[in-house]
Amino acid sequence: MSPIARAYLWVGRIFSICGEMIVPGLLGYWLDQTLGFQFSIFALIGFFIGLIFGMTHLVLMATTEQTSGRVKDAPGEASQDDPP
User: Fold this and answer.
1) For residues 24 and 32, what is the distance between their CA atoms, to the nearest angstrom?
2) Arithmetic mean of pLDDT, 16-26
3) What is the pLDDT of residue 49?
4) How confident is the model at residue 25 (pLDDT cuts 50, 70, 90)?
5) Fewest Cβ atoms closer than 10 Å to its Cβ: which of 35, 43, 50, 69?
């Protein structure tokens, strides 16, 4: 994969995680304004839920990135690193 393609891949991942973190809070803020609350309780709940979703996605993405491309050895088979 070319460096530009890899950069675009990471930009897309970063924007999706940012969206997951911010959009629930903005929806909560809109709901607070629509219902006429003076204290932004739904915005706080939305940002908290967005933080949980974003961090979960970030951890899953990091763990799958570390293990992607690796082939696990089947039981009983020698790996390529084992001497013959």
Assistant:
1) 12
2) 93
3) 95
4) very high
5) 69
The 10 Å CB-count burial string (b at 16+, else e) for 44-73 is eebbebbeebbeeeeeeeeeeeeeeeeeee
pLDDT of residue 1: 80
Tokens at residue 12, please?
Answer: 């897309």
- In the numeric block, which tokens belong to residue 18? 């940012």
Q: For residues 23 and 15, is the Cβ–Cβ distance under 8 A?
A: no
Whether the Cβ atoms of residue 32 and residue 43 lie closer than 8 Å to each other: yes
| Residue carrying the six token digits 């993405």 | 61
Can you read off the two tokens belonging to residue 70? 């690796």
Question: From the CB of residue 34, how many other CB atoms can be counted at a distance below 10 Å?
Answer: 9
